[in-house]
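Convert to structure. Protein one:
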Amino acid sequence: MKRVTNIAEDKMLCHLDRVVGEHKPITADVFLTNYCNNKCPYCTYRRWELDSGSYAMKFEDFVQYAERLRSLGVLGMIFSGGGEPTLCPDFGRITAWMEEQQFHYGINTNFNNLVLFRPDYLKVSLDAWDEDSYESIRGVRKYGRVLDNIRSYVEWKKENSPDTTVGVQCLARSTENVSRFYEANRHLDVDYFSFRPVESTAGKFYGSEGNEGQKVIELIQNLAASDSRVVLNFKWNLLKRREKDCTAQWAQIAMNEHGEVMYCCHKPYQIVGHVMDPDIMEKKAKAGTDMAMCDIPCRMTAPNMFVSQVQCERKDVYFI
């Protein structure tokens, strides 16, 4: 049965050949820019010192890097990152090339800019319920503009890209912000509303006193019971899960706007090499990381759990 949302914890089941065979990267997280038109205080990349000068990947460089990623085994790209991808001056040329190549891609965006393109999915980080809350959460007053852009895109895609899945995302800090977000935005004609938990170093947020983690989960489940578009992000099941090793690290490759390969998209400060290095996969495989500095919950936790289970040695395997 085909899932209607791209948010799922069991996608590694679709890549068993790579789990038990050659560990080739499945997904590439690609940062097209290192600057943004929002000023979100919770943004992961505000915690690290990135390049001081603004920079966007050029089309010619992107094509070279994309071909290299494809040769490494990458099947799909996510345009996201330390900046807003739609601000890249060559964004239109890049997405057109991806579509001509029939290369699967998705985008995570604040959608302050209306762009018409044909990705596998479009996920809009909205978070707010009015102009004041948008300014408080995302640093600018663009709530109305984003809603207009979503409506315009949905109408356009019905004729031009009907297979594109459109979702709206909310960072669920409390029951109040979940309720207000849903009531204000439920009228949008989107495929799903994703409520994601707060990601914090070593999971500190949900270890703090007074957090509403369990109450938020229950509220989202109640909303989902009456609206099938509401998605309880699988990360909610992993709030207390901390892995010893990133065993599925090979399944993703993260590249910044300069073509540098990061350990993962959550650690832009840890550069392991350049995508064009002949031995980049060897460098990536040898790179270690401080798991105590990892965000919890992390999108890689579920793949890590799956790969660890598959690789676990068992006694008497001949007796089912």
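Protein two, convert as well:
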Amino acid sequence: MKRVQQLRHGQAMHWVGDGFPVRTFFSYAEPLPFSPFLLLDYAAPNTFAKGTKPRGVGPHPHRGFATVTLALQGEIAHRDSAGHGGTIGPGDVQWMTAARGVVHEELHSDRFTSDGGVLEMVQLWVNLPARAKMTPPSYQDLRADAIPTVALPGEAGSARVVAGTLLGATGPARTVTPVELWDVTLRAGRPTVLPFRQGHTTLLLVTRGEVVVAGEDVVPANALAVLDRFGTKLVLQAKGGDARVLVLGGEPIDEPVVGHGPFVMNTWPEIRQAVDDFQSGRMGRLE
């Protein structure tokens, strides 16, 4: 049975661009065992007034990993130098594998900008092994209706399976290394036992309510629980009222991590090359 090893409440809220007020729970700058995950930002529900100019993050590069964006409320528009683009809304997921490099922007959609409303999102950076860091970039636009939902044991709620396999359902996300990403809704007072891979990094981000792990540790809303890698059972129960929790898991990548801003590679010479490639336009440009 997996148990909580650490509870994190994240950094103070800060703005990413002018459109995403986020709390960072961890980043690659820390020597902590989150592999294959490099960074986790959570933009808790925030209300935006109607506007005329989309807010967000203008053109910026990435190399060496994938960015995974889950839209819980509101709409986010994406476009990149590899020719990919799209808008994700509630329940949708964007999985952009930057790999050898891409320049992209993330903005509030035109509709969300003009209408205003509540924005809530999660962004996760997933590392790539050395063999995949310089492969061509790719983009997955995962719509809510294409993400399977399974009922949890004990009538405890349901789970949307974005990546990995749970209770016979396989998520649509194509991943380079094994990754689990489940969006779980728990009904109050009903414990459930979920199977989980031995040895995988295991993280729980609670976005609503309170969740009891292994019958002992209470994880409140807006908190991240780091569980041990051993054990093949994840025992969860909503406390008080219903709860929503993002379950993250992945096979650790046992390789050096060297990061600088939007680039994460294995060595400093590779980082310097990434900076040069971006500045010279070899990652492409957004017009």
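Residues 7 and 225 are 5 Å apart (CA to CA). The chain has a mean pLDDT of 96.
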